[in-house]
Amino acid sequence: MTAASMDLDQELMRAEVESVSSDNTVTSGTNGNVQVVVRVRPPSNREKDQGYVKCVGVDSGAHSVTLNYRPQPRTFTFDYVADEVVTQEDIFAAVGKPITDACLQGYHCCLIAYGQTGAGKTFTMEGPDPESSGNSPGFAAQNKANAKRHEKRGLIPRILEYIFQRMSSEKMQSCKDVEFVVKCSYLQIYNEQVSDLLDPAALNLTIHEDAKAGMYVEGLQEVVVPTAEATYGVFRRGSENRHVGMTAMNMESSRSHSVFTVVVESQRRNDGGVMNRRTSRFYLVDLAGSERQKHSESAGIRLKEAGSINKSLSALGNVIKALVDISEGKIRHVPYRDSKLTFLLKDALGGNSKCTLIANVSPAEKNIDETLSTLKFAQRAKLIHNTAIVNEDMFGNPAVMGEEIRRLRLALAALRANMGNGSIGEQNFTMINQENPSETSRVSRLEHIISQSTKRSLEAEQKLQRKINELEGTVQNCHTYIERTGENPSDSEDDH
Ligand SMILES: Nc1ncnc2c1ncn2[C@@H]1O[C@H](COP(=O)(O)OP(=O)(O)OP(=O)(O)O)[C@@H](O)[C@H]1O
User: Fold this and answer.
1) Mean pLDDT of 382-400
2) Per its UniProt record, what Pfam families does this chain match (predicted)?
3) Helix, strand or coil for residue 5?
């Protein structure tokens, strides 16, 4: 077995293990629906002072949340539910780790925090505000106070740590060539305008769509980052710019959507010289507060903000609704272009990406209507079906790649035979998909790799053929010249 085939088999085995992981992990199988998590935060001091009444019950075993709504309680089931005692470490283990593993395998990923203002979105994504207890980077637990903060750090610092840890252990363990490059960028969408949080002068940027690269923002700064600490430093710098902007414009954090993007590029060379290059993009999204805006109380800047937030969150709701209709077999136009947020997140919602939504809610009865609306939104999002693929290219010597293609075709044929079906028609494929999803996912991964390799190999062969044609043309010209003049052109060149 070649090194490349061992890599592939290990990769496929890992994907399979992940799709059958334990109940308390939000799994990241090869394809599937948006994963939805609900997190209920503890009551705040303010809620306690105002006569706190609890209205949310969590059954973590049944993955359900019950809202004591009158006259009828309402129960919702999700992929994972976290009550107020669930720690930041638990959330990372259940939600952050599986999606980061998928990102490191080459899938585009997206983690979105949704919920009303004060429901715990920023706490979940980042941890407590560093301003409130010194400017600790959230990594090193140098003293007692820091150790407490360290424990409370949110998903973003933990994800960054994990990405770099896994990359360095792969580099250490692997005897083959492997290179990683990590880049990050940070933007916010405020009043339907995209601005660069790493470059405060870059305002009103434009979002574009590219057939190969997907969605991208023109002029957005992308920083190459060597370590988790450096990446977190970039994130903190952007978050500080967000705060400066907020004070200048007198807005609260929940008035803008922020998107921190981490891009992981990897390149692995196997013994045969075939290169495997993967690029995955990980969006970490902290949305504006989802509470309904009271237009009558808003004026000036607030009115404009309220309008923009309503527009983008209702556009998000409409996109989700259309996608759910599509997953139920209806033909629908998906209005991604109705807001900057939905256009930017086009791939993450219903496209080539794995997506986890964390719906944050307050446990207090006074917020029961907002909580119900968050839970309904989250329940709808659960029905969105994404088709994520590993974003990889293979390239190298055409002969070696030809051998690789042959090997992959054989592996595919063996898999198909294993499924008791020599040629898989569309109908059979769907049937097998239902019966044996893990085998099918192996087949679709192999098919994707074969199609990518075939494309690369064809390109390399065409290039080689063009070179051969060029050389043959030159040789022919030389013969003609010699026949006509009796001179060898290279001799005459030497004369000058
Ligand atoms: N699970 C939790 N455990 C302890 N405290 C929490 C938890 N979730 C949130 N909090 C606290 O609740 C308060 C509000 O949380 P946070 O700022 O994260 O809300 P938010 O949804 O991001 O609000 P906004 O939309 O205004 O940005 C903060 O003081 C935060 O520390």
Assistant:
1) 79
2) Kinesin
3) helix
Which is higher by pLDDT, 386 or 153? 153
User: Encoding tokens for residue 442?
Assistant: 């192996």
Say whether 454 counts as a known binding-site residue.
Answer: no
Task: For residue range 265-317, list pLDDT tens digits in order.
Answer: 999 887 667 788 899 999 999 998 877 655 445 556 666 666 666 678 888 98
Name the helix (H) or strand (E) containing 67: strand 64-67
Radius of gyration of the CA atoms of the chain, in A? 27
What's the rounded mean pLDDT across residues 237-241? 90
The structure tokens listed for 267 are 């390149």
* Alpha-helix residue ranges (DSSP H) falling in 20-56: 45-49
Distance 44 CA to ligand 1 centre (A): 9
Query: How far away, in angstroms, is 122 Cα from ligand 1 center?
Result: 6
Mutational test site, ligand 1, from 123, 155, 284, 371, max ligand atoms within 8 Å of CB = 123
For residue 42, the SS3 value is coil
- Specify the amino acid at residue 195: S
279, two tokens: 């690029």
- Residue 116 labelled as part of a binding site: yes
Tell me how far the alpha carbon of residue 270 lies from the centroid of ligand 1, in angstroms. 47
29-386 adopts what CATH topology? Kinesin (3.40.850)
Percent of the chain at pLDDT exceeding 70: 65
Task: Show Cβ contacts of residue 196 under 8 Å, excluding neighbours closer than 6 positions.
Answer: 185, 186, 187, 202, 203, 205, 217, 219, 220, 221
Q: Which H or E run includes 477?
A: helix 437-485
Atom of ligand 1 nearest to the CA of 254: 25
> Annotation-wise, does 102 bind a ligand?
no
- Average of per-residue pLDDT values in the chain: 78
CA 19/CA 8 separation, integer angstroms: 17
Mutate which of 83, 117, 122 to test ligand 1's pocket (most atoms within 8 Å of Cβ)?
122
Structure letter (DSSP) for residue 365: G
For the complex shown, is ipTM > 0.90? yes
Predicted pLDDT of residue 177: 81
For the segment 2-24, the average pLDDT, to the nearest whole number, is: 39
- Does position 226 have pLDDT exceeding 90, yes or no? yes
Q: Per-residue pLDDT for 28 more than 60?
A: no
Tens of pLDDT, residues 147-199: 777 889 999 999 999 999 999 988 888 766 889 999 999 999 988 899 999 99
Give 233 Cα–ligand 1 centroid separation in angstroms.
22
Region(s) of the chain under CATH 3.40.850.10: 29-386
In angstroms, what CA-CA distances link 308 with 148, 295, 324, 495? 37, 12, 24, 77
